[in-house]
Write a structure and sequence with these properties.
The chain is of the alpha/beta class. The protein is 23% helix and 28% strand. Strands 1-7-6-2-5-4-3 form a 7-stranded mixed beta sheet, covered by helices on one side. It is globular, with a radius of gyration of 14 Å. The structure holds adenosine-5'-diphosphate and magnesium ion (MG). Adenosine-5'-diphosphate binds next to helix 1 and helix 2.
């Protein structure tokens, strides 16, 4: 387990970028409240991979796909996941099980039981002001 404190949006962005360069796993599950910095982290991560697309929150679409040199990066946001839609029906099972895919999931709380054991879990916690506690396990 590793813990980081960031004090600005830029620092969280940069942490994402550094994590992307390390490439420790294919599935990254992001936990934390609205405004904690999950999307910011994903934006930094995509930057670190050299993705030029603008990374916007997929809140309304749930899943966005970005081309990598090999395979795809999937940016998933389960905030608006409806109870009657399952992870399986959305094809998330399939996305996750393809080893060519790199997958970042916001609001991973919503599919915690379906996360693979090897998923990297990143918890972002809003502290006072712009301070964030980021725990990676
Ligand atoms: P989430 O996806 O978790 O809802 P976002 O990344 O979309 O969060 O938004 C984070 C918001 O908090 C942004 O408005 C950003 O400017 C602000 N912010 C302030 N401090 C930080 C920090 N240390 N890390 C990340 N975002 C921060
Ligand atoms: Mg978000």
């Amino acid at each position: 387990m590793k813990q980081y404190l960031t004090y600005s949006e830029k620092e969280t962005h940069n942490l994402g970028k550094v994590m992307a360069k390390k490439r420790q796993g294919n599935i990254i599950a992001l936990f934390g409240d609205l405004g904690a910095g999950k999307t910011t982290f994903v934006q930094g991560f995509a930057k670190g991979l050299g993705i030029k697309d603008k990374i916007i929150s997929p809140t309304f679409v749930l899943i966005r796909q970005h081309k990598l040199k090999k395979g795809f990066l999937y940016h998933i946001d389960l905030y608006r996941l409806e109870d009657n839609l399952s992870i399986k029906e959305l094809g998330i099972d399939e996305i996750i099980s393809n080893p060519n895919n790199l997958v970042l999931i916001e609001w991973a709380e919503k599919m915690e039981k379906n996360l693979p054991k090897n998923a990297i879990k990143i918890n972002l916690k809003k502290l006072e002001g712009d301070k964030r506690l980021i725990t990676i396990s």
